[in-house]
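Hi U.,

Before I forget, here's the chain from the pilot set. I'm dumping it here mostly so it's searchable later in email.
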Amino acid sequence: MHHLVILCLSFILPTAAPGLTGATVAKQPAPAIALTQKGQHLCAEYDGQLAQLKVQIAAALPALDPARRQAFLQAYTREAATYAAMEKAMGTWRGARRQARLANNPRLLEPATALKQQTAQAFDALRKQILAAAQPLLKDLEPFLSNDHLDTQLVRCAFLTAATPRQLALFAQQDPASEALVDRTLADVPLQRQMLLAGGAAGNHYVEAMRIYDAILQSSPHARRGLFQRLALATALELAVPVKEFDRKTFVDPVHRYQLYAKAFLAGELDPHFAHLTTWEYRFVINSDAPDDQLTWGRQMLRTYRPDLVRSGDYAGIVGTDVVYQAPQWLGWPRTYPQILNGGGKCGPRAWFGRFILRCFGIPSWGVVQISHAAVGMWTPAGWTVDYGHSID
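Structure:
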C-alpha cells in the first residue's frame, strides 16, 4: 500500500506534499493539444471529484505532534540535495577513474574515491535520520492505517492524482467511446487499486495504459480473469511507454505481446511458476525488447538444444556454457539475440542474452548495473537474485 501511505503523509504534511507525491506521481509535460469545451467540462468534473476526495480524507486523518512533524520535514527536505551531491560525486569518481587508467596512476583516483565515500556516508546517515523521524509519525498513524474504512477514497484519490484530471479529460473528449472508458475506469476501484499496487502506469501514462488494457480485453476472451487478467494489466501498465525493439526502429506491440505469452502458456511452453506471478512481476517478463519472433525462437532453441536446462529451470545457464566471453561478433544489422549466442560477447551482451532467455520462458528479469560490469537480476521461487554479477563484500 505504498502509494496510499504516501498519499496519507502528503495530506498530513502539506508542506512536504510536492516531494512526497513526487515519489509516486511524476511530473508530466504540458499537453500539446488544448481542451475543447467538452474537455473543459470533463476536466472540471474530474477535478471536483478529486477535491471532494481530498476533503474527505483530510477530515478523517489524525492530528500529529508538531515537534515530530517538524523533525521529519527537516530531515526529508534535505534528501534531494544530499542525493544530488552523491550522484555528482559518483560522476566525478567515474571521470577520475578514466584519467587514472589512461595515466596508469591509481593515486589519481584517491581524492574522488574519498569524496564518493563521504557523500555516500552522508546520504546513508540522512536516510537513517529520515526513517528515525518517520517511525514516531507512523506509530501515531498506525490506528488509522490499520483499518480500511477510507481505502476506497484513498485509492480513487491516488489514481486521480496520478492520472491527472486534465490528461483524463484530454482523452475523454475525443469521442463517446473514450469518455465511456474513462467513466468505467473511474468507477472500477478494484482495478485502480490493482494498477497502483502493481507500480502504476509507466511514465504515469495512465490514459495509454487504459487504452491498451481495453484493447487487450477486446482481443481475448481469456483476458478478464485469473492470470490472463494480471498479464493483460501488466502489459498495459508496462508498455504504456513504448518499448523499442532491440536495434530496430519499431516498437513492441502491446496486444501482440500479451497474445504471445498467453498462447505460449496455454501451449505449456512457459515455466510452471509463470501461472502464479503477480501483476507487478509479469511486468518484468513482457517488457523484453526482443521482437516476438525472437522470443519464440529462444524457447524453441533451448528446448531443442539444451532440454536439460529447460527441465531444471536453469534457463540462463546457457550463458555460462555457450555464450563465449569475447568481443562480440555481430553478423549483420539489425543485431539480434540469436547473433549473441553465435558470436558471443562480454558482460553486456551476456547479460542481455541472460535476461532475454529468462523472459522467453516467462521468468521475470531486470538489468543489474555494477561498476564496470553488467549482470542479470532474476526472479526465483525463493526470491530475487543476481546471476553473473560481481560479489560485493
